[in-house]
Amino acid sequence: QVQLQESGPGLVKPSQTLSLTCTVSGGSISSGDYFWSWIRQQPGKGLEWIGYIYYSGRTYDNPSLKSRVTLSVDTSKNQFSLKLSSVTAADTAVYYCARADYSSSSSRHDDWGQGTLVTVSS
Amino acid sequence: QSVLTQPPSVSGAPGQRVTISCTGSSSNIGGGYDVHWYQQFPGTAPKLLIYGNRNRPSGVPDRFSGSKSGTSASLAITGLQAEDEADYYCQSYDSRSSGSEVFGGGTKLTVL
After folding, report:
1. Which of A81, A110, B10, B70 is deepest in the core (most CB within 10 A)?
2. Is A88 on the interface with B (CB under 8 A)?
3. pLDDT tens profile A84-112
């Protein structure tokens, strides 16, 4: 079981870019056995998959976010990151990073960070 | 509107059996994609409860079970306990557009 920890600003202004980093410990991002995911949860709402990245840098993201998502990975630091551009109040949410096992036809998220609340407000 | 449809709430008395449904379509569950279930307590991260339709990770009691048929999946909880009161989410993959992991809208389980 790995540990994941999100970090980044808790307050972002509208139209700016939200940036978060997830630090992985207890396992290597470069192991190649997993995708590394971002998932968010708006206040009082359900879970929304944002996207995931492989250690090679190959990314997959949610089409509903209309290309506002940029995912990156830094294997030397065992970290992966999320950038979400042109944010609005609707992007206010708890953002989770998670490890995704892709050994089945849909990826299961077996380890999660504790989540970090990002508020979009001027 | 979630791609996977769950009832907003279910309830049951201690010791009873409850089921939570997750209804999809031919582009996700019905297309053969696996379903996973998560349990979430207020203020905490979700926890994987069932994976690959019916498998339990180590440490999950066998009171929890999953099944899948056609375009739907179900989570069953037997011998309901007060500590089971939580939100439950299903997740699968949807092949429409360029593909996406998708979650159900979540179901709040209340233990009466």
Report:
1. A81
2. no
3. 999 999 999 999 999 999 887 889 999 99
